[in-house]
Amino acid sequence: MREVKVNLLGQTLEQLQELCAAEGFPRFTAKQLCDWLYKKRVDSIDRMTNLSLAQRARLNELAYIGREFPVRCQVSGDGTKKYLFPVLDGHFIETVYIPDDDRATLCVSCQVGCKMGCRFCVTGQQGFHGNLSAGDILNQLFSIPEFEHLTNVVFMGMGEPMDNIDAVLAACGALTSSWGLGWSPKRVTVSTVGIIPGLQRFLDESQCHLAVSLHNPVPQERQQLMPVQKAFPLNEVLALLRKYEWSGQRRLSFEYTMFRGLNDDLGNAAKLVEALRGLDCRVNLIRFHESPEAPFKTSMPATIKQFQDYLNRNGIVCTLRASRGQDIDAACGLLAGRKGQAD
Fold first, then answer.
1. pLDDT in tens, 239-296
2. Which residues contact 124 (CB under 8 A, 6 or more apart)?
3. Catalytic member of 20, 34, 110, 332
4. Is the Cβ–Cβ distance between 196 and 235 less than 8 Å?
5. What phi and psi values does residue 179 have, to the nearest 5 degrees?
6. Residue closest to 226 by CA, chosen among 275, 260, 263, 190
7. Is 293 a residue of the active site?
8. Does the predicted model carry a pTM greater than 0.85?
């Protein structure tokens, strides 16, 4: 049976050490590979010039470097760029580059579509078509022309990171380990709707920032918006988070999309304060971006301000996230990766 080639991009130092040991390569070859993959960011094994010709020939038989360039770039009036990448079985994912003064953030996807079925999210309406590999995730950084300008990466694109935790942890490792890009974990934020098994691993195996999609503090109302509430109730997610230290190195935030008449009154604000009491965290309010796929309206500006002020007065740091890229469907909850966009 023909060997399945390994995508070197996304492999950890330990995985590369295992590959080299199996092939009888010197142990230091794994560090050389990391250097070429993550520091020099080559797109071809043949460019790894400090490996022998025999080693490169064998690696070409065993493996490849999974670099795929975007097939489309849309540019928003505010400077945001949305890239369309080809991935599994003819599908596509979207990645968003967000420049902002001296910061430049890349919002990456971790799945093709999503299983979570949140009623307000366009991505969730597309169904689920597969997990991305760590290499697919990292390729979104390495294959855009703005890579050198990136200051931050957020796992807030298509998919639920804790539902693809192996690949997400491997990608985070490549971003933050000394054998990879060597970034501070403070530059990376991973989001979740609260998949507890994956979240537990993330908390134990990573120091990157965490953002939890909360959106409603009332269990029954949250479940109507987010079916995950039934399997992994918010109170159990919060109980897990309270077991960890949240200060300095690792930050905890909660994402709260504002829906008119659903979760935006002061009663909801009071229940949110009670739910988060004692947690060192912040709340990011998000204006809902209306679309034909979701039957909701965004809250009025005065209502959002009132909600924000209430949280700040009651001891919870609360900010309103700036809406970026809405004119190209690059804002929160709008990523779809439709195949037709590549035509």
1. 999 999 997 789 999 999 999 999 999 999 999 999 999 999 999 999 998 777 678 8
2. 113, 114, 116, 117, 118
3. 332
4. no
5. -80, -10
6. 263
7. no
8. yes
Helix (H) or strand (E) holding 282, with range, is strand 282-287
Residue 44 CA to residue 269 CA, distance in Å, equals 53
Please measure the distance between the N-terminal and C-terminal CA atoms of the chain and give it in whole angstroms.
36
Using CA atoms, how far apart are residues 156 and 191, in angstroms rounded to an integer? 6
Distance CA(198)–CA(136), nearest Å, equals 19
Residues 209 and 250: beta-carbon distance below 8 Å: yes
Contact 29, 17 (CB under 8 A): no
DSSP class per residue in 56-109: HHHHHHHEE------SEEEE-TTS-EEEEEE-GGG-EEEEEEEEETTEEEEE--
Q: How far apart are CA 38 and CA 311, in angstroms?
A: 42
Which is the catalytic residue, given 94, 107, 110, 172? 94
CB 200 within 8 A of CB 186: no
Domain ranges of the chain: 6-64, 72-342
- Give the whole-angstrom CA distance, residue 215 versus residue 224: 11
Hey, which CATH number is domain 6-64, 3.40.50.300, 1.10.150.530, 2.40.290.10, 3.10.129.10?
A: 1.10.150.530
**Closest by alpha carbon to 88, among 127, 136, 16?**
136
Asked if 114 is an active-site residue, the reply is no
pLDDT per residue as tens digits for the range 195-246: 999 999 999 999 999 999 999 999 999 999 999 999 999 999 999 999 999 9
Calpha distance 29→22 (Å, rounded): 12
- Fold of the domain built from segment(s) 72-342: TIM Barrel (3.20.20)
CA gap 174, 113 in Å, rounded: 24
In angstroms, rounded to a whole number, what is the distance separating the alpha carbons of residues 217 and 226? 12
The reported pLDDT for the residue numbered 343 is 44
Question: How many CB atoms lie under 10 A from the CB of residue 30?
Answer: 22
